Amino acid sequence: MKQNWGKTVYYKQNHFVFKLAISILLVGFGFRLLFSQSSNVNPNVTDDNITITAPVVDKPIPSDLVESTNEFIQFQPKDDGSEKCNVFDGEWLPHSGGPAYTNNTCRWIESHQNCMGNGRPDTGYIYWKWSPKACELPRFDAKKFLEMMRDKSWAFVGDSITRNHLQSFLCLLSQVEDAVELYHDKDYKNRKWHFPSYNLTVSVMWSPFLAKADIFEDIDGVSSSEIQLHLDVLDKTWTEQFHTWDYVLFSSGKWFIKTAIYYENNSILGCHGCEGKNYTDLGFNFAYRKILKNLFDFIMNSNTKSTVIYRTSTPDHFENGSWSTGGSCDRTIPAKEGDFELSDLNRLLREIELPEISKAEEHASEKGMKLKLLDVTPLSLVRPDGHPGPYRHFYPFAKDKNAKVQYDCLHWCLPGPIDSWNDLLMNLVVNG
Ligand SMILES: *[C@@H]1O[C@H](CO)[C@@H](O)[C@H](O)[C@H]1NC(C)=O
Ligand SMILES: *[C@@H]1O[C@H](CO)[C@@H](O)[C@H](O)[C@H]1NC(C)=O
Ligand SMILES: *[C@@H]1O[C@H](CO)[C@@H](O)[C@H](O)[C@H]1NC(C)=O
Ligand SMILES: *[C@@H]1O[C@H](CO)[C@@H](O)[C@H](O)[C@H]1NC(C)=O
Ligand SMILES: *[C@@H]1O[C@H](CO)[C@@H](O)[C@H](O)[C@H]1NC(C)=O
Ligand SMILES: *[C@@H]1O[C@H](CO)[C@@H](O)[C@H](O)[C@H]1NC(C)=O
Ligand SMILES: *[C@@H]1O[C@H](CO)[C@@H](O)[C@H](O)[C@H]1NC(C)=O
């Protein structure tokens, strides 16, 4: 019998303690997130004032409040005895082939993730390939993909990691035919491209909570008021267009740690981290679960013929400090399995994502709908070498070798390990 540790551990966790620990620790933090950045999407726009995200709490959650549940990442939501290879269970192997594109051959790389262009000196991190234990995972085949996607439309809905992923997708495809930009809003957060020879449309939609949220942040991510998050209303930015897409990829997560007032039926239900206000602190996991449930209900009720994919949240790798206390990420090779534990925050997100997606998958297959999990968390966890670090800026040490630079150990270099997410994405689409 196959033991499913993740499941056991998951049900043992004390949700209330978790919620409490997280809410206490997060109160009073200024969540100036890189996620809130806006106009730096264009390669030539630089915006030095953007603060790195706060995916990690500044202080570790006391160990007596949190059981060590590293095994949770091995949780298999679909352990139904089917013969299918689990492509998310594998390892990174050296790969001499190198990336399919570079900063010289793709013009869609955002400056903050253009590690090569920003002078990152080492290149070892691009010579690895994700290899599932039980089967061969072919690399993304842009030509074949474009042929398959003739007359189709794709959308990526989520936050700045979603955008990071989308740019990898565009770069891979643009090796066959460069995309033509059809639309962008003024902040370059919502954009649309077209591949003319294939009549493929690709959109990216900015919707960090997937639900209706009023966000009061300036361009630097400085917040003037709490986020007002409507747990029962999905974000019409994407719901209005949902029916037009053949393939939709959703993801979310990290924004939920920000201080927010939660609404339901337009009245205040409670909050997360709103110290000094007379509201019940419900914890962000309450909100995340609720919104995911709404998302999947919406999808089920739409009876869509589209393929819907949910991507799990992605870990960060700040070491020797957090994002705000000088944490860094200087590694140049992948970590060994077990070197990095999922942060408590990531684990909380994951323990909501996996069961909710699993339930939705079951429901979808009963209805003959296509809903799939893109589980990038485990394979991303062992790639601390794949982040821009100081190279989110153009030659950060050019003037001063010891310059103090804000590290980005959350987003991913392009090219980089995030390209493998698209190998997996293509596999999902081709093999179901
Ligand atoms: C980016 O640079 C190009 C060429 O320098 C320029 O034409 C374009 O307007 C710039 N875009 C933005 C958004 O500044
Ligand atoms: C960053 O913000 C400070 C204060 O708001 C401003 O003085 C500075 O010019 C900004 N730097 C950049 C690069 O925008
Ligand atoms: C790409 O990066 C290399 C350094 O690795 C640099 O020499 C080159 O100018 C960059 N190309 C562009 C278009 O920025
Ligand atoms: C392009 O694809 C769209 C669907 O995404 C379709 O409505 C349209 O007719 C196609 N255009 C051509 C020229 O085939
Ligand atoms: C919101 O409305 C729904 C249905 O009308 C109801 O079931 C639910 O209890 C209400 N929630 C709150 C917080 O009032
Ligand atoms: C907080 O809310 C409770 C219940 O709604 C109320 O009894 C109490 O007076 C409120 N406290 C303050 C300081 O407003
Ligand atoms: C963290 O600090 C240790 C000891 O000072 C050092 O050996 C290691 O390289 C540092 N790690 C990173 C990622 O900077």
Automatic annotation (TrEMBL):
Question: What is the protein name stated in its UniProt record?
Answer: Trichome birefringence-like N-terminal domain-containing protein
**Keyword Cell membrane tagged:** no
Q: Which Pfam families does this UniProt record tie to the protein?
A: PC-Esterase (PF13839), PMR5N (PF14416)
* Trichome birefringence-like N-terminal domain span: 83-136
Q: What GO cellular component term, any one, is given?
A: membrane
Which compartment or compartments is the protein found in? Membrane
Where's it mainly located? membrane
Q: How does it sit in the membrane?
A: Single-pass membrane protein
* Similarity comment: family membership: Belongs to the PC-esterase family. TBL subfamily.
- GO MF term list: O-acetyltransferase activity
- Give the transmembrane region(s): 16-35
Signal peptide range: none
Tell me where in this chain the Trichome birefringence-like C-terminal domain is found. 137-427
Natural source organism: Tagetes erecta
Keywords from the named record: Membrane, Signal-anchor, Transmembrane, Transmembrane helix
